[in-house]
């Protein structure tokens, strides 16, 4: 799972989330620091309204939490989701002695990004791609 810091960096860089079953997220509010949630058709459903997207908590009376606005939820993208967002720019993922290295093509040039975890390497690569497009 991508780190919260990188997830927030992705949000600030403009990477948008359309919640789907299986997605993981945290609630960006005090008191929820250690909790990771998973969108599921059984317990947490994404509801689209004219006013925005709401994540509805079904059958979670022990939490006393009915719903949370999408802007209060921080998406923690998974490895396959980050790789999909990299699209055709992704070249390879390689295990190194200190972690993982992602190679992508940015503007026709090979670009290397490294991190301790594969998810974080993908996230750093996506940030590199987003910032190169600016």
From TrEMBL:
<protein>
    <recommendedName>
        <fullName>Pilus assembly protein CpaE</fullName>
    </recommendedName>
</protein>
